[in-house]
Amino acid sequence: MEDLEWHQIPTEVLRVKRTPFGNWLRFSVKNSESTIQSRILLLGWLNVPDTQLCFFDKSGKFVSARSGYSNDIEDEKILTNLPHFRIDLEPNENRIFYLFVLSNEDINYRIQIMGLEEFELRKRLRSIISYSIIGIVAIAIFYSLFGYYRFRNFTFVSFLLYIISVLVTFYFLHGRTFAEIAGNTNNLFRHSYFLFLGISYVFLFLYLFSVDKINQRKVYRSVFFWISGALGVLYFLIPLLHSWYDHRILLLVVTVGLSSFYFIRVHYQFFGSNSSIGFLYTASWTVFLVLNIYKTIFHFDFYPFNYFSVFGVVLFLPFHSILISFSLNEFLNRKKSQKLEEKDSIQTRKSTTSSLNVVEIVQGVKNLLEKKKYFFKNL
Q1: What percent of the chain has pLDDT over 70?
Q2: Who's near 218: CB < 8 A, 6+ residues apart?
Q3: Which residue blocks in the chain are alpha helix, DSSP H?
Q4: Could you say which DSSP state residue 168 is in?
Q5: How far apart are CA 139 and CA 318, in angstroms?
Q6: Percent of the chain having pLDDT more than 90?
Q7: What is the dihedral of CA 309, 249, 267, 270, to 10 degrees?
């Protein structure tokens, strides 16, 4: 085995093209201490159905252990643990490990060795952050439902559909793989990011339609608007057809360009608004969409893994959902108040006009002309 060619594990990010038969990696770990040391080898990505750690112990016996989502673990209900292995080293032992990784995607993440306490801390933080995100988004969902009940406006429903689709996309990326639930046989299920990316793209245009309808700008009446929204289904073809995968950057440029164009057209009046609600609304959407595009470019495999690109938009999602739910409620509340004021103003004018006695006024003018002898003369 030592005579074969192996992928070496760098200190930062490992970036290697996957093979259909898996990838083998080799690394060595040395215990310089005088006591037995235990460490955790952690793979930084979920979409790994099977991984195997192999080594020869002191007696020359071949030892192996398995991890990955295909190896069922009873305590993994909602959040699947990242693939990991425990390593125990004798004092002053230097051991060579062979790591087999059967990945559904090209390897583009960190593979780290850490202490047991650090590993447990990461597990707890991952759990706390994940449930916190779900909880905050749930609050935004209920607030939007309250807004729909209050104003009976479809914008709240379309926003809910978009936010839920984005949350589901992130969940199947970082919480639990879709292939683990639906099966590992379909290539679209193994690369479920493209499936849910297409769905969320379509829902974004549905949201733009509902906002445009409120503003009565009538952008949605253009057939090109609906064609642009329907392009999201083409994301489904990326993992299914090799030719689409090779040209995925073209699809990304077109869809990002069209969605940005129509977003600006629909929200044009918000960008010049002096209202604090308008500024809050546009700022939140701008930050969210930029971070989301940044993350999408990473998942299209165009640059190495970094935490900000992968998790920036995930951490911003709960704040964005709250801010937009609040902004929509405030915006529609102000619009409703303006309509009531206009209605009251019209009613007041009608009341003033109807209260005038026209017959009496005409008779008074007639008497004034006859008795006082007022005449119009040419000057």
Answers
A1: 83
A2: 212
A3: 116-151, 154-174, 178-182, 187-190, 192-215, 223-230, 242-246, 248-266, 268-271, 276-299, 307-354, 358-372
A4: H
A5: 9
A6: 47
A7: 40
As a whole number of angstroms, the distance between CA 117 and CA 126 comes to 14
Mean of pLDDT values over 292-302: 91
Q: 151-179 burial, b for 16+ CB within 10 Å, e for fewer?
A: bebbbbbbbbbbbbbbbbbbbbbbbbbbb
* Segment among 15-19, 70-74, 137-141, 154-158 with least mean pLDDT: 70-74
Per DSSP bridges, beta strands 23-30 and 7-8 are: parallel
Report the distance separating Cα 232 and Cα 138, nearest Å: 26
pLDDT at 32 over 90: no
The amino acid that residue 338 corresponds to is Q
By the 8 A CB rule, do 204 and 231 touch? no
pTM: 0.84
Burial degree of 259 (CB within 10 A; 0-12, 13-18, 19+): buried
Kindly tell me the sign of the dihedral angle through the C-alpha atoms of 247, 286, 200, 108: positive
CB of 56 within 8 A of CB of 62?
yes
Based on its alpha-carbon atoms, the radius of gyration of the chain, rounded to whole angstroms, reads 32
Scanning the structure block, which residue is given the tokens 């297409």? 198
Residue 272 backbone dihedrals phi, psi, to 5 degrees:
-100, 10
| Alpha-carbon separation of residue 206 from 79, 150, 327 (angstroms) | 30, 21, 18
